[in-house]
Every structure is written in structure tokens, then in C-alpha cells.
Amino acid sequence: MQADIPDRAVEEALRSVERVRQREASPEVPGEPPEGGVAVEVEGRAEAPGSAEVDSLKAQLELSQAKSRETLEKLKDQHDRLLRAVADLENYKKRAAREREEIQKFGTEKLVKDLLPVIDNLDRALLAAKEGDPLADGVKLVRASLEQTLARHGVKGFSAMGEVFDPASHEALMQVPTADQPPGTVVLEHARGWRLHDRLVRPAMVGVAVAPPAPAGDAGVDEG
What we know:
The chain is α+β, with helices and mostly antiparallel strands and 224 residues long. It is built from 4 helices and 8 strands, in the order H-E-E-H-H-H-E-E-E-E-E-E.
């Protein structure tokens, strides 16, 4: 079977093969663009058309890195604010717990202060009662019951008789000149002191011993 090939097609094919051979045989001249390409002159040197795309990619990369650093700084700032908020919340919880404990322990302080004069009056009534008075026995029972009830809620009384005067727990109402006790000793108690747990509710009302005045004959000795 034989195919008819036009002479023109054969000549065109031969010319194409010859051009390919010539390109392979001759080296490319630096600075000249490849066939079908366009050279770009940048700062005195010829560059391939792809260099502009590389510069664009570099610019995009730098912009992306800058935005990443900015985002990282924002995240760090938000993280610090969250840490401070958590710390503030923990401090608030601790403070609220302390306040709740304070209320539980000392919430009855005002009521206790109002009841103390009642106990003082019972004590005065017992001091004024006659020996063997049956009414006094009833008052003693009432007073003892009241003090036991207060003790269950952390309220306890204390006496200052015979102790050294302590301004943190005692309130001096008077000075008592006496030689029977050293100066500064509590020798008279008008009312006992009271504490609610470890807090002083009322100091003991006391009289404090002082040295008696010297006799008039000992005021001085005349020099001869």
C-alpha cells in the first residue's frame, strides 16, 4: 500500500529538522532570551520573566510573617489578661471565703454585746441577795444556763483579778492606792471581760493598784 506525500510537506519537514540541529549545535548567548521568551532588564542585568513572580512571592511571605508576629503579640496579650483575670477570680474566692467565715464566727457580736449588760445585772443581783435566799438560787441557775448557751457559740468571760494590768484586755476605771499588791496589779473588778472566739468583745472593767502616798513626816529631812 503506498501513500502519496506532497513534495512541499517533505521539504518543510526537512527544514524543521535542520533548524533543530542548528539550535543544538550553537550555544545560547548570555542575556538573550530563549525562543518565544522576553528578557527583563533589572538593575543593569537581564532576568528571566519568572523573577518578577519570585519578588512578588517574597513580598507576600514577608507580609504574612509580619501579620503572624502581630497575631502572636495579640494572643500573648490576651493570654496575660486571662491569667490576670483568673488570679483576680481566685483572690475574690479566697476573700469571699474569709468574709463568710468571719460572718459565721462573729456575726453574733452585736447580739452578744447587748446580752452582756443582762449578765452584769444578774451578777449584781446575786451580790445583793441575802444568804440562803431561794430566789438567789433561781437567779444563779438562770445565769449559769445563759453563760453555758453563750459558751456553745464561742462566747466566754474572763476575770482580771490579781493579774497585771493589760491595756489590750483591761480597761482601768480607777486607781486604788494600796501596799498589799504591787503597782499595776488589778485589785478591783467592776465587770468581767468577754471574748467571742479570739476577738475581744468587751474588756474587763478594773481598778489598778498604785503605790500609796508617803506619810507626811517622810516628805523630807532638814539639813543641819
